[in-house]
């Protein structure tokens, strides 16, 4: 309380006068950085919008003031030249290919075809497996040729599958609604019945 009256109302000064200015310096640096990034992005955008263009022909000599029709004609001519340039730069569109013929695959007629009989000898010996056959189907739906694509490993199963599939009837493949000869892959599984 013994302090002189002029010192009581003063605010205490910080020991470091630069401490108050630091936040201002930091925000100033951030602002400069943001401005630089914005300028770079603007330049990038501007150059990407321009593309690579041929330099335009020199404009006609300046016209006397008041001859707005000459200026308008020059602008129209320049716009037309630019449109021609853009049109020639566009790639010509490829014509659509002709519609390809609609083809359906051959398929076995399940209701008419008997499943291969599991050979009893193979069943007794516990043999099982998968046989995959390639069947050439004529336009009339008959099997004209049958070949193995994958054998089961048991000759009895292979013979049973081949014998049965040779007798099968098929819905022939069709091209634009007309039957055609083709081939189809036919898998035949021989699975032992579960005991239980």
TrEMBL record:
One of its GO terms (biological process) is transmembrane transport. Residues 84-96 have a biased composition (Basic residues). It is found in: Cell inner membrane. It comes from the Bacteria. The keyword Acetylation does not apply. PROSITE patterns: TONB_CTD. It is a single-pass membrane protein. One of its GO terms (cellular component) is outer membrane-bounded periplasmic space. Keywords: Cell inner membrane, Cell membrane, Membrane, Protein transport, Signal-anchor, Transmembrane, Transmembrane helix, Transport. Residues 1-13 have a biased composition (Polar residues). Residues 1-25, 60-125 are annotated as: Disordered. The keyword rRNA processing does not apply. The chain crosses the membrane at residues 29-47. Residues 61-74 have a biased composition (Low complexity). One of its GO terms (molecular function) is energy transducer activity. Residues 103-196 form the TonB C-terminal domain. Belongs to the TonB family. Interacts with outer membrane receptor proteins that carry out high-affinity binding and energy dependent uptake into the periplasmic space of specific substrates. It could act to transduce energy from the cytoplasmic membrane to specific energy-requiring processes in the outer membrane, resulting in the release into the periplasm of ligands bound by these outer membrane proteins. This is Protein TonB. The lineage of its organism: Bacteria, Pseudomonadati, Pseudomonadota, Gammaproteobacteria, Lysobacterales.
């Amino acid at each position: 309380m013994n302090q002189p009256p002029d010192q009581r109302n003063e605010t205490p000064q910080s020991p470091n006068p630069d401490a108050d200015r630091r936040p201002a310096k930091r925000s100033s640096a951030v602002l400069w950085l943001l401005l630089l990034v914005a300028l770079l992005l603007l330049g990038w955008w501007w150059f990407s919008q321009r593309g690579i263009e041929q330099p335009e022909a020199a404009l006609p000599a300046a016209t006397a003031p008041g001859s707005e029709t000459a200026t308008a004609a020059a602008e129209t001519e320049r716009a037309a030249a630019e449109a021609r340039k853009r049109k020639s730069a566009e790639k010509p569109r490829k014509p659509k290919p002709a519609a390809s013929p609609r083809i359906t695959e051959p398929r076995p007629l399940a209701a008419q075809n008997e499943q291969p009989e599991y050979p009893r000898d193979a069943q007794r010996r516990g043999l099982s497996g998968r046989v995959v056959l390639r069947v050439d189907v004529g336009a009339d739906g008959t099997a004209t040729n049958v070949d193995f694509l994958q054998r089961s490993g048991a000759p009895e199963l292979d013979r049973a599958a081949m014998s049965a599939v040779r007798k099968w009837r098929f819905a022939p493949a069709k091209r634009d609604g007309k039957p055609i000869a083709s081939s189809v892959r036919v898998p035949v599984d021989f699975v032992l019945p579960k005991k239980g």
